[in-house]
Amino acid sequence: MDHFEYRNGQLHAENVAVADIARAHGTPCYVYSRATLERHWHAFNDAFGAQPHLVCYAVKANSNLAILNLFARLGSGFDIVSGGELERVLRAGGDPSKVVFSGLGKKAAEIRRALEVGIRCFNIESEAELDRINAVAGEMGKVASISLRVNPDVDAQTHPYISTGLKENKFGIEIGRAEAVYLKAAAMPHLNVVGIDCHIGSQLLTLTPFMDALQRLLALAERLQAQGVKIHHLDIGGGLGVRYQEGQAAPSPADYMAQLFTDERLCQYEIFVEPGRAIAANAGILVTEVEFLKLSEYKNFAIVDAAMNDLIRPALYSAWQEIIPVVPRTEGEMATYDIVGPVCETSDFLGKERDLNLQPGDFLAVRSAGAYGFTMASNYNTRPRAAEIMVDGDTVHVVRRRESLDDLLRGETILP
Ligand SMILES: Cc1ncc(COP(=O)(O)O)c(C=O)c1O
Ligand SMILES: N[C@@H](CCCC[NH3+])C(=O)O
Known about the structure:
The protein is of the alpha/beta class. It has helices spanning 18-25, 34-46, 65-73, 83-91, 108-117, 127-140, 175-186, 208-226, 253-260, 277-280, 313-317, 405-409, and strands at 4-7, 10-13, 16-17, 29-33, 53-58, 77-80, 99-101, 121-124, 144-151, 173-174, 191-197, 233-235, 270-273, 284-295, 300-304, 323-325, 335-340, 349-356, 363-366, 387-392, 395-400. 28% of the residues lie in helices and 25% in strands. Strands 4, 14, 15, 16, 17, 18, 19, 20 and 21 form a nine-stranded mixed β-sheet that branches. It has an eight-stranded parallel barrel with strand order 5-6-7-8-9-11-12-13, surrounded by four helices. Strands 1-2-3 form a three-stranded antiparallel β-sheet. Helix 3 (65-73) links the parallel strand 5 and strand 6. The chain is globular. The N and C termini lie far apart (56 Å). Lysine (LYS) binds at residues 60, 162, 202-203, 313, 372.
């Protein structure tokens, strides 16, 4: 259970009772395990053995500075999608020369800043972006290292909202056009072609789509090399899924790499990988308190103090995440509840039809909440965002305090 385990009748995060954290720091709060985060990062890094590679942690999954700093200390690279994420990486002590910049709407100012600090590579998503990066680099008297994010038209077999590698998706450059665009890029004075990039989607539980995409990338790389465009690295993106639910099977990073490297052509390139969820999801929980129980003959609701503004995945993708009691009751009855928040939307639920033995005041933990939890949180209904807490062995660190109402209202003005 990844450093979140029941001991002495209650849930622990590493060596600390989660109920003690909830009482000391209030709910809702996110609780992360340092040991789990580091173990997951190493699982990716070690899966490569002696193969030249760079693990570029996808910052969007969980961008808390303390987490980025842990990975920076391990020598990690980072996959960013905005100037904001770049500043986070820098502030956390990340090495800009290990940063790849993805995303399809890079603004000139963001490109300028990335060139100024010397990132490793821009993953370019359109021909227009090629022109913009060439122009900005030219103004600065620099040469930008680039790869094209290729859209291989492969079905990632995941939720349609997080599939990115089909030709109808907005991402990347259609693979049929890629060769022509590469030749154009290679001729631009302020661009240096260094790699090929691809990211077909998130929460993939089978390896076949990754293999299909890889075959297309390798074939493209061969065609480009034959035309004198030197390809140094292949960036295979992120996307490896995790087990959210009992009975789900997710390939490990080691399984994933073993499968990819069955094609030996891969060994001639440096391999970049951009995992987010597979590193962070099961390293975090969202802890919430039951405020009220609302019972009827049709339906039981447990109204809790976390809501869709804290964790939007259930509302947005009908995502299923396990919900467990922090201190399981030894007396009383199980009942079937929808676990809902206080937000004024019917889609505001964390889980539906869960069998739990509950009383008001109980703490619940939503598991697998370390990725795309806090980073997707909002202030909807003028709700302050939750605290983020990192457990490191016996020690509890508040790595982001709960927002205050002052934080929330800052910057707004009324008319004179
Ligand atoms: C370009 C890119 N790289 C990496 C990731 C990280 O994906 P995941 O969290 O599924 O590993 C994403 C998000 O899907 C992405 O868009
Ligand atoms: N936000 C999504 C994943 C999207 C990945 C970003 N490209 C999730 O919570 O599952």
